[in-house]
Amino acid sequence: MTFSINLVSDLQQMLHYQFMQHAFEAGTIIAVIAGVTGYFVVLRRSAFTAHAFSEIGFAGAAGAFLINITPLEGFLLGSILGGLAIAALGRRATNRDTQIGIVLAFALGLGLLFISLYSGYATQAYSILFGEILGISYENVLLTLLAGAVILGGIGIIYRPLLFASLDEDVAEAKGIPMLFLGTFFMLLVAVAVSFAVQVTGVLLIFSLMVTPAAIAQHLSRKPQRAILISMAIALSAVWAGLFIAFYTPYPVSFFITAIVFGLYLLVRIARLLIKPAKIAPSDNQKVRASISN
Amino acid sequence: MSIIGAKTSSIAVQSNLITAENLAAGYREMTVWRDANFAFGRGEFVAIIGPNGAGKTTLFRLLLGLQHPTSGSLRIFGAPPSRGNPQIGYVPQRHIIDSETNIECLEMVRLGLSGKKWGFNPFEHNDRDAAYASLKAVGAAELAHRPLGALSGGELQRIFLAEALVSKPDILLLDEPLSNLDLRRETELLHLVNEAVRSRGVTTLLIAHNINPLLPHLDKVMYIANGKVATGRPMEVLTSESLTALYGVEVEVLRDPHGNVAIIGVEEHHGDVR
Fold it and tell me: Which pLDDT score is estimated for B273?
């Protein structure tokens, strides 16, 4: 496969392969759900929890052969059980780092054991830890689509209470929002999102889709709905560009995705540092005031 | 003995928004305070003072339906408190906003109105207008598009007040809104709260450490200490005689020529009466 200056013919050449079609389809769905759920993960400071899901899921995927289910099913089972356990630990995110860390380390160890029990030791571990988007089956694309619909629908339903509970927990509780239900439901959505997102990024690089795009988006917009769209757009462009570049180079997709989002993050941080002084200046305040009176 | 408040509650039950009879609060084995009798009418401004751990926030938890009385009755509009009562606006204590939170204030105020509703509604112009109006009412219209994480303590308190008032509640519960504010911000915020009480007829209960800045605005004061609750007009409750009679120990209320008071003789403690 050779890269030419004509991008259209490059794309055609790439999408000529069925495994690339599947990778693009699954990658697109995963970028959208990771961008949306990632926004709330970042807002609720639950990044570590999301990472824990991926590692508990790893144990599930590695141990899947023991109970005769597919690795994806094993992953889902692991991360969903992990989600329920963490939701049961309590609603406040603070001071949970230690417990999550303890469970996470054990889960990774368990995963290692399961993988050594399994004959396909090295490749299996490698693909779960670092992603296997180029090997995704048509069946898994359909499953991903189903999961995407469930997650988007779920977030759509709990959007306002979730935002309220994430921003202003005490008032939300007093207002009668069912906090435990909401927290658990959201944790389950994240567990499912993580289970599918690891197909692209792998367990260890899950932050590149679940955290970085949302973190960038939060710097770019103060309106949650707009920030969610930006987060989705960043995840999408990283996945698409990553797949495209990886097709024409011998290097892994996951690397390019992490590199693209990290580069964007740096760019936004630096740009904000440069722009910030002007934003605090009184002239900007007056602008704000003028826009309100309009 | 008007300070005990039993008298107050029997005056006009019909017009009272909040009534308590022989109310006791606590947790399983521990009573925080008991025998509280009080009644607050529409548009009354009440300060709640007392030592740390005396059970001031516990009263708010009872009113919000987050905790049940251990005995006695508490009624809001004649009904027992229930969680999520839309008639109550609430600003909790130690309200912390992460300095990284880059979400505009308008969004938070809007959630005070529609944050409880399920579903995704991108066309919430009415909510937006109401949120703007609420911000304007607390003099914070210019903060509408500022990120929450960048606000000062005084600015945040105004946003919280706007968030609590946006749903047009009949009752406002403010838990130590004045702590961490300098004198000027304190005066400003009190002025805003007083305005809300007077112009909207919102019955307001405000927990404070220092009664003095509040005295010019107050209708009633509630003094919670040593497991007992005294309620009434400030000049009646905050006297050496009435507090001594209530507590059965020597309590002295000192007044300086400017009308400032200091209460001496009730120890700081952490809540058990027995």
Answer: 38
Contact B45, B191 (CB under 8 A): no
Predicted ipTM > 0.90: no
Angle at B115 between CA A92 and CA A192, to 5 degrees: 55
Per-residue pLDDT reduced to its tens digit, B54-79: 999 999 999 999 999 999 999 999 99
Query: Torsions phi, psi of A118, nearest 5?
Result: -90, 145
Token pair in block for residue A145:
């689509």
Across the interface, whether the CB atoms of A168 and B117 are under 8 A apart is answered no
Confidence (pTM) = 0.88
Q: What is the largest CA-CA distance in chain A?
A: 70
| CA angle (B166 as vertex; B161, B168 as ends), nearest 5 | 110
Residue B150's identity, in one-letter code, is A
Element (H, E) at A213: helix A212-220
Q: Which residues of B touch A222 (CB under 8 A)?
A: 102-104, 107, 145, 147
pLDDT in tens, A64-74: 888 889 889 99
B86 neighbors B113 (Cβ within 8 angstroms): no
Provide the shortest C-alpha distance from residue B205 to chain A (in Å).
16
pLDDT interval class at A287 (50, 70, 90): very low
Cα distances (angstroms) measured from residue A4 to each of A9, A12, A248, A251: 8, 12, 10, 18
- Closest approach of A54 to chain B, Cα-based (Å): 25
- Give the integer Cα–Cα distance in Å for B180 and B182: 7
pLDDT(A208) > 90: yes
Question: What is the average per-residue pLDDT within A127-141?
Answer: 88
Q: Which residues contact B252 (CB under 8 A, 6 or more apart)?
A: B240, B263, B264, B265
Domains defined for chain B, CATH in brackets: 1-87+170-182+203-274 (3.40.50.300), 97-168 (no CATH)
- B126, containing H or E segment: helix B125-137
φ/ψ of residue B230, rounded to 5? -115, 130
How many C-beta neighbours within 10 Å does residue B91 have?
25
Contact B85 A176 (CB under 8 A): yes
Q: How many CB pairs under 8 A join A and B?
A: 101
Distance CA A227, CA A232 (A): 9
Assess whether pLDDT exceeds 50 at residue B35: yes
pLDDT in tens, B174-232: 999 998 888 999 999 999 999 888 999 999 999 998 888 999 999 999 999 889 999 99
Q: Domains in chain A, start-ordered, CATH in brackets?
A: 7-206 (1.10.3470.10)
Residue B237 distance to chain A (closest CA, Å): 30
